[in-house]
Amino acid sequence: MTQRATIGATDEKEILRVFQSKAETKAFYDKISHVYDLLSEHSEGPVRREGLEKLDARRGEKVLEIGFGTGHCLVSLAQSVGSAGKVYGLDLSERMLGVTRDNLHKAGLAERVELVCGDAVQLPYPPVSLDAIFMSFTLELLDTPEIPKVLAECKRVLRPGGRIVVVGVSKEGEGGVTLHAFEWSHRHFPNLVDCRPIFVRQSLEAAGFRIESAKRQMMWVPVEVVLGLLPIVSKGDPAKDKSPRSSDRGVEG
User: Fold this and answer.
1) Distance (Å, rounded) from C-alpha 43 to C-alpha 75?
2) Domains, the chain, ranges and CATH?
């Protein structure tokens, strides 16, 4: 097993590194692709759906999901954007892509979705080309130095005023026994527990997104559901944020 960081104790505010290589991560998800829903959909599904509600994909929009897994969220997004819109999906696992393609064909939505097997560190989309981006339980799989790189890529491809929703295992607030056990398992068994808690909202803010909504809740571990906007900056006033505000969205806790 390839290690990219020293496994040891961490303080409360330190994000653990990822101890698996990209090749190992890809091989793991290729292996579990046909049983992934049995392993995770019961616990992750409700939180993913909440994230999709926050994203609020609209008819005619172009929307990207990074780390689409078995494609359930892509089906929902394709339904939301309608025939005039387009959905793009990027995932590291070729076998996950195969499962997703089958699910899209079964739903009759394959023509609305373009799938790519690739790395989010270099998104294969033109600048200023997308209206919204969705990620669920994906950002925490990336090694710590890659998180700002991926979010910078998201900024590059989003249009001004574009939306991003990230659902991720959270290190915010009180850790508790469950969170510490989760981190301990990641340090000692990274081939089984390949992700770790991160600061979702802080990561988006540091990348330059304006937070419209941030909610922390319990799955079996703490999870953040965060909606950010890419600010619209007027010429001649680079500090002025003119992103559209929504009166019914706010930051929670």
Assistant:
1) 19
2) 22-229 (3.40.50.150)
